[in-house]
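hiii, so i know i said id send this last week but things got crazy w the move. better late than never?? heres the sequnce for the chain we talked about at the cafe, plus the structure i predicted for it. fair warning i was half asleep when i ran it
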Amino acid sequence: MVEATGSSPGGSAVLEKQSERVRKKSPLYKVLLHNDPVNTMDYVVMTLRQVVPQLTEQDAISIMLATHNTGIGLVIVCDLEPAEFYSESLKAKGLTSTIERED
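okay and structure toks below
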């Protein structure tokens, strides 16, 4: 953006270029939970709440049911580092989880 900020001797305008900051957002990632025949529904809900503390009981139940009914459920969308942490934590507790970039 160029803005006229005053006049110099001789009547010509003095132009200053204002710097524009362009912030590129980092891509977001989906943490996915995959259905398995091993873990109970109660265990899945409890584990989701332990691993992702911001999930309410109802959120965790909805994710578990979506996973149970469709084979895969969306746990959370976040930056890469927490997505990796959540996915690895779910795996460490015996659940099957992957991450993929959100487009």
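btw The domain at 24-101 is CATH 3.30.1390.10 (Ribosomal Protein L30; Chain: A,). thought thatd interest u
miss u guys!!
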